[in-house]
Amino acid sequence: MSRQSVSVLGSTGSIGLNTLNVIERNLNNFRVVALTANRNVELLAEQCARHDARLAVIADPALEQELVAALERHGANAEVRTGESGLMEAAGMDETDIVMAAIVGAAGLNSTFEAARRGKKILLANKESLVIAGEVFINEARKNHARILPVDSEHNAIFQALPIGFENGLDEAGVDKIVLTASGGPFRTLPTDQFAGVTPAQACDHPNWKMGRKISVDSATLMNKGLEVIEARWLFNARPDQIEVLIHPQSIVHSMVAYRDGSVLAQMGTPDMRTPIAYSLAWPQRIEAGVEPLDLAQMNDLSFEQPDLERFPCLRIAFAAMRTGASAPITLNASNEVAVDAFLQGKIGFTQIHALVSDVMERISVTAVKNLDDVFGQDGLARSAAQQWVAKFYG
Ligand code: NAD
Ligand code: MG
């Protein structure tokens, strides 16, 4: 493997840290060229010094001077950029081979799209950008020969279990359906009358995975699985009726592909994001990831059950948005981002998340989506409707 250069968008987050951890174990194969963060100047500067990055991007322009000072303090030589244009530069740099897209939310779309435009190898963690830009994003990647490798553990598992050439259609590949597993999150068995009182700390305390706060809340509502269903549709060129979800509380089987002949191929492993990160970095080869080996003899229970859509309405709403298509997933994602943010700030309760999303989905009409302007237009509409909902509720 020749040594490849990596830009890590969102390097200070959970996926970003895991990515740098895997890169550090494989410095013969990878080197870091650009790192980006939203506001965490100290950590970004420290990472730039450690990896001798050429470019440091802080999304919040007000922190530019702080970053300059922190880089100097840490003895780092990186050039500084700010804002959206800085993120896009990090994604599109000539010397970058691989872009790890690990910004959270629609805020990652422009930079991830830039990586597609520039034909990079895209390690896609930022599921929200694919959920909202869907076909527009896939077409841009295809046009520029940008390969998308899924980092989300379920999609990475499915990618590992699919045959070469699946992009031409799952039917042709002999696939009956793809089955996304879901842990069920921290409230899988919580009595439903206690949902209204759930706190942000409880919602972020996932039983199997340590992740950023937004995706942790999404995992507690199962909206995360809903977003992943839509993500799977685009990544694997799947029809809505070819995608299913199964609850698997142990998070050992990361997802499965069921074939026409009755075969089911599953990918298993210790729940540790360094496995899918390492796989997507080195694909089609395999590298050391620092992950505990799976000891199946210690596991006396691997169980599977149907998801309860009454208990977790967000999953039902997301399935409906996928089937509706066009701008529906954009409205779903934008209203969910606003709702989760309001929940984390204590402005709305846990059960208001699905109430808000469902109200905004009903209120905003579905329109065609042909380009990024359409995506951002619809995203803006849904966001302001969701913000009004919060303001009305919270006062
Ligand atoms: P996180 O909150 O830990 O990190 C987010 C990163 O994005 C940070 O570096 C932050 O500085 C940056 N960021 C946040 N807002 C930004 C903005 N407005 N502009 C620019 N940068 C911004 O999140 P995470 O858990 O690492 O998740 C990142 C993405 O990966 C999400 O889309 C999530 O759904 C996906 N993902 C995460 C996991 C996981 O295990 N953490 C698993 C699967 C998928
Ligand atoms: Mg996932």
In short:
This protein has helices at residues 14-24, 41-51, 64-73, 83-92, 109-117, 127-143, 153-161, 200-203, 213-221, 223-235, 274-282, 313-324, 328-344, 350-363, 372-394; strands at 4-9, 30-37, 55-58, 79-82, 98-101, 121-124, 148-150, 175-182, 243-247, 253-259, 264-268. By secondary structure, the protein is α/β, with parallel strands linked by helices. Bound molecules: nicotinamide-adenine-dinucleotide and magnesium ion.
Low-pLDDT segments, ≥5 res: none
Report how far the terminal alpha carbons are from each other: 58 Å
CATH architecture of the domain at 4-150: 3-Layer(aba) Sandwich
Query: Taking all residues together, what is the mean pLDDT?
Result: 97
Task: Describe the main β-sheet briefly.
Answer: 7 strands, parallel
Write down the secondary-structure element order. Answer: EHEHEHEHEHEHEHEHHHEEEHHHHH
Total beta strand runs: 11
Provide the CATH topology of the domain at 4-150: Rossmann fold
Helical content band = 40-55%
What is the structural class?
Answer: alpha/beta
Give the overall shape.
globular
Which ligands occur here? Answer: nicotinamide-adenine-dinucleotide, magnesium ion
CATH homologous superfamily identity of the domain at 4-150: NAD(P)-binding Rossmann-like Domain
What does the radius of gyration come to?
Answer: 20 Å
Percentage of residues in strands: 5-15%
Strand arrangement, major sheet:
4-3-2-1-5-6-7
- The total of helices stands at 15
Overall CATH class of the domain at 4-150: Alpha Beta
